[in-house]
Amino acid sequence: MVDTGNSTERGLCKILYFLIDCGEQMKILATEVLTILHEQNLKISACESFTGGMFSNKLTNIPGSSKVFVGSFISYSETMKKNIVKVSKRVIKKYGVISQECAEEMVLKTQKLLKSHLTISFTGNAGPTSLENKNVGTAYISILFLGRLESFKFEMKTEDRYKFKIGAVNFAFKEILNLIKK
User: What is the pLDDT of residues 88-103, one digit of tens each?
Assistant: First the structure.
């Protein structure tokens, strides 16, 4: 593209390049996760909140994902977290839905319900305003792999919900690879 000096056009180009680069990176990471899990005859599941199914979508975009991917819950609301995933009211009341404790309970309950070898959960604040005294761009991600629980706080300084979700999902794929390659 020719630089016309138009700042709006340059801004759109930066966003487009970001999305293309992240999309390709996620495809590569998702493929590697599925390949390793398939080779080890292991299954994966997810419980997503602010990511709205993006993690699961990236997995299911890969041919053959049904051999490895069990399924997911999109527990966007507190009601879904309590009534479907069975996150305890005590955890939500004491720590809030945007907390490591909630992410851990989401991952443990999802693994129990879907019986996968690797389960991941996402909970966070994509904005536009602070929630539960948590800044926009704050997330908690928990991964349960063969009985081993790992939790991460992910922060990204952006008010762009889509970029935040992409960042969190990319981060999660990298952390999964760190765990399953050990």
Answer: 999 999 999 999 999 9
